[in-house]
């Protein structure tokens, strides 16, 4: 490529679209990861067991359960980001999604009684059921976002 064609490449519609869109992409990612972090933190503070401490102690069941929370929050957040038309949309729908998902997680925790104690004991089957229930609610909530 000769140096005279470089300005034409830089002014191409594709490069201009990238230059315009990339900062927006980064902003969308920052906002959505912020919402994910907020949701995971609130969940960790609301659970009857301390998953992070259990994970640090090597409790595999707690790790599986918390992974279910992270993915369970990320799925509807990703969907809300995909249907949003602005940062404000991402924030509004993202917060609504996190709140609804945290409520759904709480209901699952209440309905599946005894699971916190089983997870504290490191029982992997209990954690898998809990993670599965949280992923199922995440998928349903994500589908609801698309109408």
Q: Judging from the principal axes of the Cα atoms, what is the shape?
A: elongated
Total number of helical segments? 7
Low-confidence stretches: none
* SSE pattern: HHHHHHH
Q: Which class best fits the helix and strand makeup?
A: mainly alpha
Average pLDDT, rounded to a whole number, is 88
How much helical structure, as a percent, in the residues? over 70%
Radius of gyration, whole Å: 20 Å
The largest sheet, given as strand count, sense and whether it forms a barrel, is:
none
Measured distance between first and last alpha carbons: 48 Å
Number of strands: 0
Q: Estimate what percentage of residues fall within beta strands.
A: under 5%
Structure description:
This protein has 147 residues and is mainly α. It is 83% helix and 0% strand. It has 7 helices and no strands. It is elongated. The N and C termini lie far apart (48 Å). 27% of the residues are buried. The mean pLDDT is 88.
């Amino acid at each position: 490529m000769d140096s005279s064609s470089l300005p034409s490449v830089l002014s191409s519609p594709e490069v201009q679209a990238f230059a315009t869109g990339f900062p927006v992409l980064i902003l969308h990612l920052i906002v959505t990861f912020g919402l994910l972090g907020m949701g995971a933190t609130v969940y960790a503070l609301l659970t009857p067991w301390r998953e992070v401490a259990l994970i640090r102690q090597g409790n595999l069941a707690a790790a599986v359960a918390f992974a279910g929370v992270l993915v369970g929050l990320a799925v509807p957040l990703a969907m809300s980001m995909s249907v949003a038309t602005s940062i404000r949309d991402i924030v509004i729908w993202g917060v609504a999604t996190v709140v609804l998902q945290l409520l759904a997680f709480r209901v699952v925790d209440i309905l599946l009684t005894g699971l916190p104690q089983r997870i504290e004991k490191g029982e992997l089957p209990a954690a898998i059921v809990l993670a599965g229930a949280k992923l199922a609610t995440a998928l349903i909530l994500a589908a609801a976002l698309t109408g």
